[in-house]
Records
---
Amino acid sequence: MTTKSTGVIPSTPSTTLGHAMKPRQLTMMGLGSAIGAGLFLGSGAGVQAAGPAVLVSYLVAGTLIILVMWALGEMAAANPNSGAFSVYAEKAMGKTAGSTVGWLWWLQLVVVIAAEALGAAGLLFSVWPLVPVWVLALVLMTVFTAINLVGVRSFGEFEFWFAILKVAAIVAFLLVGAALLFGWLPGTPSPGLGNFTGNFAPAGWSGIAAALFVVIFAFGGTEIVSVAAAETEDPVRSVGQAIRTVLWRILVFYIGSVFVIAAVLPTGSEGLKSPFAGVLDLAGIPGAGTAITLVAVVALLSALNANLYGASRMVFSLSERGEAPAFLSRLRGKQVPMAAVGVSVAFGFIATVLELLFPDKVLPALLNLVGSTCLVVWGSALVSQLILRRRADRDGTGLPLRMMGFPALTVFGLVLLAIVFIVGFSNPESAGQLVATFLLIAAIAAACRVGERVKSSRATSHAN
């Protein structure tokens, strides 16, 4: 039941989240969360590693995220919950597994929130050097905290328009890229497809493998759709619509953009440092660098907004299940978990201040620790769906949304994920990141297990 807004915080907290998010907002959130700075600024790293063959890496990563989202969509439609994959892991594999996945994802998001605030502030400073970076970062954190406190409808609307801006930028880029490749721009000769026909994979399979681990993280964030499904007006219809529309658009935008970049900018080009700007500069578009910088700022702020939302809802769900302090599941105002928002953003504020006091030391270490978290979350989602779907089929339980090709496609997704891990461990840099993430998982799991035993012993002593 939605509390009517009167401008006064109710004295008695609500016990359920609202359902004010619209299907269009959920769809654009899923699209916008996957289209971030990783595409606008980071796609050049993939082209540098693999040349035009980076498209193979994108196809593999894109196939994996499609399978993960189908699996999450099936579970979210059957059980819309703000804990999403954490709840599903608990149902499938037990309480420790569920709480570990939830806390791991929460920690990843609160670290990334600080990184995104600093990144957006740094980009803004590069085009508007009037306010210090640390002031801009704190202002941005404060603004987006306020947005998340005023209700899910306002959050959804902000995220909707952020996504619209990013999509519009990509569509414009694709149109300019097509005109450039077809030779339709006056005074600018077409670069043709020489990069593809001349040396498609300059670094061979090793380059494609190296690019795969870079590319895979560009799709991170899409899983937030399963978290937001709990606050939509019609979860079953909204999730189905989001899954159907988001996935093909992500592939078109990502693969289309990377195709243009790989065709226009050869491996080793300086333009790959900011690939969208590099293509637009070659096309003779004035102010391209500034325009893409501002688009990247929007991408980072969109991700900050979505990640703060996702972090607050995850810790709210953990609290509801007795796996986080009880005050974090209290709702105020327009059914907003204000304490959960506050705790989630507090870590971001602290990390931001520490990074500003100790530049290039705090955040890189934290990001290295949580860098592989999305892979673990995706793996837990696929395993959970495999278990829960078999359980539902065995018990004759109807599901409102069913993943096709089960169980073959779920198993195929796990195989692809295993390949990504193998590739990651074959590279010293990514191997270190994976080891750090697994050590973090072990520590969280141990803490969750100890917490469960303490609660169990207390419950037993009270009963006696």
---
Amino acid sequence: MAKNRSELVAEVAEKSGLTQKQVSDVLDGVFESFTEAVSAGDKLTIPGWLSVERTERAARKGRNPQTGAEIEIPAGYSVKLSAGSKLKAAASNK
């Protein structure tokens, strides 16, 4: 079952003893840091948990699914998230 942001904020607030507003502000700060790092092309790593980095995608040819016409897809950027050892262990219930 998926959790949305408000459920996550409520759970962290309960476990940490902080208010939901404080937890929400911290999450905003974390995501702002992720955004700044990715937009600058830097890799952000939280050892054991995850790493986030910007990757480059080369220009390539594609097809319009409606017409079948070949189109040129321009080069661009994407974001790569990698799970750390603690997150991988939690996923495999170790």
---
Amino acid sequence: MLRPDINDLLTQTGPGTPMGELFRRYWQPVLHTDELPEDGCPPVRVKLLSERLIAVRTPEGEYGLMDEFCAHRGISLFFGRVENEGIRCPYHGWKYNANGQAIDVPSELNNSEFCKNVKLRSYPLVKVGDILWAYLGDPEKQPPRPTWEFATVPERQTYTSKRLQECNWLQALEGGIDSSHVTWLHGGGPSGHGLEADPLFAGSKGNQYNKNDVKPFFEVVENEGGLLIGARRNAEEGNYYWRVTPWVLPNFTMVPPRGDHPVHGHFWVPIDDENCWAWSFDYHPTRDLTETEVDAMKAGAGVHSKNIPGTYLPVANKDNDYLIDREKQKAGILFSGVEGIAIQDSSLQESMGPVVDRTKERLVATDAGIIKARQKLRRAVEALRDNGTEPVGNVPEHQKIRSVAIVLPADRPFVEGIGDGFLAREGVGQTTV
């Protein structure tokens, strides 16, 4: 269990909080590129780490992320007019460039001098892959741009989605590094809707290993950017099936692969202390995604969700009890009664409440990855707060990482047996079962 003060330390990410300062040392995914689809398009509201911001794309193609509210009278610039070089407030015509600097205040005679002293808080916003990424930290500490493999492979090899998750970022992350729930939560009967029924998971030998051994053994290994969380299950005689999930500080996880299916993963990005964005990606390191695969992702298969059109709120959400089907649950067709792997996860993570009370937990051996991740997060937050020690995970060498699924002899440590299978290498396929 965690003391209330430690729980607060790890879950609160607003301005001035220790965890908020840690998050502000990393580039975070903010928008799909199609949310700002063309030069001069309408602005988009962004809430990130409890800050209310506005994203713009000027007619010249420059991206900007700044305080949502005009410095004059606090009008939301969501209603602003995007013009050459920036955005103009509709109330009194104050105009800002993409960096938040006032460049025109029509009412002032000495306009240029007045403008010099008016600047909205603003942050870098850059395109990598099909995502716009923001950095909200100290400009002098800005790390290199993201180099995650899913964002840097050719466009036809990758797909990214996002959905609103109505809970704190940490309990969402903890679900992403917990392999012990897979057999239960994502299970179904022989003709049911478990892993074998999902077109992005079906046909993998690993599915059978998951089903046959419901008591995985966990081994957690330190890695430069975070942790490698190994879940071991029995395979054929004298062998173990290992699923190894990398966690990179503070909020990146990858799901171990299944067969030749695309590799899945997540970013869990705090909106505020009670909501987060679940960014989910699928990519294949050596081939294009098929039309069938992409259609399945768009329909909410795998780690993705089917959202209400025009929003990022899943169709199955807490207001409709995630469309739980008690008859399928009772019959064993769906163990949870909820359709879809992503919604099965979010339904239970949201059921804990906006911020779970970790003083009431009773953790067990299969929670080893969660325990180690909390410890490493706490050390990183306190080291940054108390000593100014920069965190790990925000440099390219820590981001060239892959998840792994492998069968190894029982006497062989998984780190030794996998070798360089953890490394993202251009043109080399994933290590998978």
